[in-house]
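Dear support,

We are seeing what looks like truncated structure output for some complexes. This example has four components. We would appreciate it if you could run it in full and send us the complete token output so we can diff it against ours.
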Amino acid sequence: MSKWYEEELEPGLRAQYGLKKILHSGQSKFQTVDIVDLEPFGRTLLVDGLIQSSQIDEYVYHEALVHPALLSHPCPKSVFIGGGGEGSTAREVLRHATVERCLMVDIDEDVVKFCRENLPENAAAWTDPRFELVIADAKATLENSPTNFDVIIMDLDDPLEGGPCYQLYSVEFYQTVKRKLNPGGIFITQSGQAGITRHHLVWSPVYSTLKQVFPAVKAYTQAVYSFLDEWGWNIASTDESISPLLLSPEEVDKRIAARIKGEMKFLDGESYTGLYCLSKKHRQTLAAETAVLSIEKGTFAVMHSQGLCVAEAGSAEVS
Amino acid sequence: MSKWYEEELEPGLRAQYGLKKILHSGQSKFQTVDIVDLEPFGRTLLVDGLIQSSQIDEYVYHEALVHPALLSHPCPKSVFIGGGGEGSTAREVLRHATVERCLMVDIDEDVVKFCRENLPENAAAWTDPRFELVIADAKATLENSPTNFDVIIMDLDDPLEGGPCYQLYSVEFYQTVKRKLNPGGIFITQSGQAGITRHHLVWSPVYSTLKQVFPAVKAYTQAVYSFLDEWGWNIASTDESISPLLLSPEEVDKRIAARIKGEMKFLDGESYTGLYCLSKKHRQTLAAETAVLSIEKGTFAVMHSQGLCVAEAGSAEVS
Amino acid sequence: MSKWYEEELEPGLRAQYGLKKILHSGQSKFQTVDIVDLEPFGRTLLVDGLIQSSQIDEYVYHEALVHPALLSHPCPKSVFIGGGGEGSTAREVLRHATVERCLMVDIDEDVVKFCRENLPENAAAWTDPRFELVIADAKATLENSPTNFDVIIMDLDDPLEGGPCYQLYSVEFYQTVKRKLNPGGIFITQSGQAGITRHHLVWSPVYSTLKQVFPAVKAYTQAVYSFLDEWGWNIASTDESISPLLLSPEEVDKRIAARIKGEMKFLDGESYTGLYCLSKKHRQTLAAETAVLSIEKGTFAVMHSQGLCVAEAGSAEVS
Amino acid sequence: MSKWYEEELEPGLRAQYGLKKILHSGQSKFQTVDIVDLEPFGRTLLVDGLIQSSQIDEYVYHEALVHPALLSHPCPKSVFIGGGGEGSTAREVLRHATVERCLMVDIDEDVVKFCRENLPENAAAWTDPRFELVIADAKATLENSPTNFDVIIMDLDDPLEGGPCYQLYSVEFYQTVKRKLNPGGIFITQSGQAGITRHHLVWSPVYSTLKQVFPAVKAYTQAVYSFLDEWGWNIASTDESISPLLLSPEEVDKRIAARIKGEMKFLDGESYTGLYCLSKKHRQTLAAETAVLSIEKGTFAVMHSQGLCVAEAGSAEVS
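Here is the complete output from our reference environment:
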């Protein structure tokens, strides 16, 4: 290999991926956007130099993001996606036969455009009659939406300081989300790295923030090879009697069979159960977490090249 | 960072670790041995340039290796460790109050010596009166052992071609193992990378090979951050009515409380359950796997710098 | 920088160049060909992963290759270029007002095609009426040429084993060259790395080989930044009374003023003099060199990824 | 190679050296100091992550630094070295039979200590009765010196902002130097990278600054392989009628034979002449250079990780 794509996973930890081809490389209004073919991962989207999703295992991330949320709901008809510009999240949502409307709101027109041109596996989603695309700020669009949703999915970048979406990881935004969910509505958000050494940076602060707003919240994780770590999500229900967050493996398999078109590759009843089995260490961190991410209070999780920090108003403490 | 330790995880995928200090670096009779301080992982043992274990999360690997085996057994008194030169596996075994004898057989005197000098967290194990160390070939030592064991643990390098231990991943060796286990005996072996893209290289062939010998076998996985992937193990029981391979989370927590000294960091009932929840993809691979690793037939899993292959007698097929 | 181009300069010595853009990347019949924009060097041609020439300082290499040869000749009218597919060598030759015909013979159509499309600084050369391009083997074309030449220039890849041009560094080829030169004819060939530690690999063997054939030979060197070392050439004259190899700085400046169109950037009388001032170490190597590169005797300089060797018939000695 | 030492040569240009052994690695009061064995260069001293000198070719740098200065002087008896902690500069000075006293003033005790322990090739210098070592600031020591010197040599780090020695590249310091030289005294200073693309950063500003103070100044360069570029020096004479800066090659060879003990490896009359033959481009830069490095005016050359700049009072312009 002569050409390499390099990512700094954390200070002092670099990954280098053999670079076979650059399909697109540019600077959008918000971020740098690369779509490349990597030797170990196939076609890959990188935003600001960080892998967002790659051909070899994007299904793990997207099945783990979308289906636990939609399966928890008794009959999800309307779905809001914040971010998700690559199209894979919409693709998974639209596999659910119950879904009548899927509104995706991404702020970065370039990401959408270049992914649409270069990621053929999502082609069907873009032209599905139930699918609606808006290029705008997800927060403002959701606040002003005349209708509510059964499921709201946040498929965002990490909360990079100065990036386009750290405000979408805040107690204020989660209050908006809750208001915009129908009874029994489900909220799911990607929540950053969640391995044994880094899950306290974004994943557990998002968890404790959601606990301020929702009666039921669960944090879960799954190893994603092309992210070179476990990844994290947080899921919340407005009413667990309608939409319970933890289903039995048998119930998951039954709902998949009844509702989802085509074969899953990663998720079924057993792997769903695995998502929710956290290590002792992870559960200790969640139990001890007190951070509340807030725009008003100026406390939010930000990711620097030198690591992540939870900034308190007027004082930043680097983790 | 000016100094880096570089590992090729697979062709076209490199990791580079900031190198703070070299504590030992040399060539033993069998392999190169490095003990270093790495920026992201702390003190780390590397053999032939591959990370074996690092301070930051070795407990994940070693708790996942040792405790499921010992907890499955109703009362493990005698334990055989093949490999494990670093000392951490013995350390975890010796935390079990039931254990009366722990025999560790490692072929590489240098690994043992340099780890003993440089990894203070295992100091207590080396001087425990129940612990016995033999520098020898684990296969021959086990074959000639006058006594049998309740639990046999293989904590080996990957089956590198020309390396010291690929014969310890074979149907012939597993027959020896079975013969040397007491009734209800448990066998556990590390089984290489086990993420969504690489679990077919060693993990599933070891599984199907063990199925030729043992009435009950289970394959399981766990993300290990410093390995930058999920890792894999295979566990087998000579008699599931005495030593069942899958315990309920409650039973695990009960046995931990009753038998193990000190606090676990990673393992408890819930994370134990997570170990055994495999993805749909992993289970499909296990179900379809037909390889039988055999010294006689010349079929064994070998790892090259260019990937891994399962070699059939007279013909090598690179995976 | 996220994207890098990596070159192995010698075993244990890597350079990495920030990769801004890939303009062309492909495999020709003979070699891999990359034309890229590099952060430190600008637009750059790489063949088989090795930098051939880059925008930032290609003029140093090409002025040092072409002008000493043409300036030594009293009135160069016909010039043969072997290799030179990039076009820069022809560009420099065609700046000489005396030149009536410049025949370039390159074996690799793709190198020529892609350089012509992507290196605008050589545009004028390709359409100069005095310029003639043949895609063919330089050796066969020269042997069969009905006419002789005043100057023959070899602007080739290094003599890579299995590469397209190691036979063009041989006593047999140099005999052909001599036969095809007019009286007072000048031969110049690039001769690989020539820094204080690597000049014995190709540069001095080419020197001693040329000494077998030509009455006057001089070896010279010049630092080329984008090659990260000094580079080497060997120049030979069929008759020093017509074409002396060493001119005074004043004579060089006079001939440049009289013959060459446009401004030079690197070469003039003083820097010309510097080319020929070799270090004591370099001169000792030349004096002691006995290698004769020969196709018949099977002794030729070959460059491996593991270094270079001068292979004797039936025995290879790695330097 | 698993272990690498990485140096950033300029933004977007990295070199990586196979790291065989770390002999010393630490933080002195002033800088980080590494003494390592590198695969391509042998034993090597690095300060603040930048190669200072390596076994394979340190003689090129040190012969080019020391001998042109001492050979220009008719009979150098007393020599002052600023910096030079490694000991090689003193070693070369002490080879001159005329030298009666060599005073070396280095600010960093650790560099001196660790080099003395780890670089056996300089052992003789440290115990030569003519040699005197002072750990102190070279500027203050020179200012307060009760005696003058025949030759003053500055063998310093590059003028890193915040580093220990950027004030030693200034018009004020050069006035002190001139005052402390005996009639016909010679001053020589290392002057940083001097290849075709980077010689304007330190080398030419130092040249034009020296021109403010000394009647005769010459800038020269030499490729140094382990620096991966040409290196630069500036030499000045207080009186060219006593100490001419440019000797004929014959005169150089004569003085070497008469005065220097042992064999030179790099320098003799011819290579000396080559040092002074600058390219057209280098000479154009020198001719156009107007910078005057001054402590009072706050104009000095500083090297950042992001390149170098000549800072004017109150305004920094990055080159």
